[in-house]
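Quick one: structure for this chain?
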Amino acid sequence: MVVIGAGAAGLFCAAEAAKRGRSVVVLDHAKRIGGKILMSGGGRCNFTNLFASHENFLSNNKHFCKSALSRYTQWDFIGLVAQYGIAYHEKTLGQLFCDNSAKDILNLLLSECSKAGAAVTSGCDILDIEKHTSGFCLDTSFGQYQCESLVIATGGLSMPKLGASPFGYKVAEQFGLNVLPTRAGLVPFTLHDHDKEVLAELSGISLDARASCNDTSFNENILFTHRGLSGPAVLQISSFWQPGQVVEFDLFPHGDLHAELQKQQQQHADILLSTALAAHYAKRYVQTALPYLGLENKPLKQYQGKQLQQVAEAFHQWQLKPNGTEGYRTAEVTLGGVDTDELSSKTMEAKKVKGLYFIGEVMDVTGWLGGYNFQWAWSSSWVAGQVV
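Got it. Here's what it folds into:
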């Protein structure tokens, strides 16, 4: 069998298939194997999540990922990591990272391939794929390969500098499979000029927030950048946002800002609103936010009736319409891809094309931020590896 793509899914599937005595070769067009693994998680590789379940994934068919995730779980991969003695830690929200380096995970995968006898070849371009009665014939820059089973593990379009390409989608289309529209996911927002002019001054400031859009919310940090808005809450909600929509941010997500301001009004009536807010936010943020949100900066005693409540609402319900996203250049994942209705949820084999499999990010299954996409790589490639 041949696996095209030597990323997380491709390498893991190759090792699993080779353990069954299959003759396996992995082909990748990049000169360096596992580039996306090495840079993931800030170089520490967020390799899974303690809480991974089908509810943490976006797909046109929300039930598709259930089978694979239940058959090869986060605990299975954590067990493999433990076998290799790789030190790891939980960062936040169940996210597991290597203590040392993402190289530990790449070395694990390459070692699994080596022990099982799967060959890994880099710098190999696939020029043509043909289907024959007995399998597939691949014309490559390294000559021809014949195989009974062909696994496409080429990922999505995110991070083109690391070799991302639409290759997998083209293979699906070549064999008559439907490919759903793709877009960047887990990606920073860009801003309209009138917002950017003001908010770019806040570059580097991080706030705890709840980001909400399309009946979905995430409670994590947001980060102002010189280009727009980033941070975990923004990356998460970007996968649910559609162009032209508004995102609402609660910038005081764990309390009642109105009650806090009333308390300060009773105890320190003469202080300015900016001073009261500086107890909860960076001063630089308060100085910029008040005029941006259309709020006056006057002593608390001058706020009458519902005025303090209106101040609080401006922070609890900040409405922002992003201009767009930074696109595939900085996106962590690609939404959309090979339609899961075309594939078996138990084996990842194309229903119409015997011996053709798709695993990992190339298909229309996209995880939240936090190790979920790696877990989908492990789960989808493991189930395929048991049958290819």
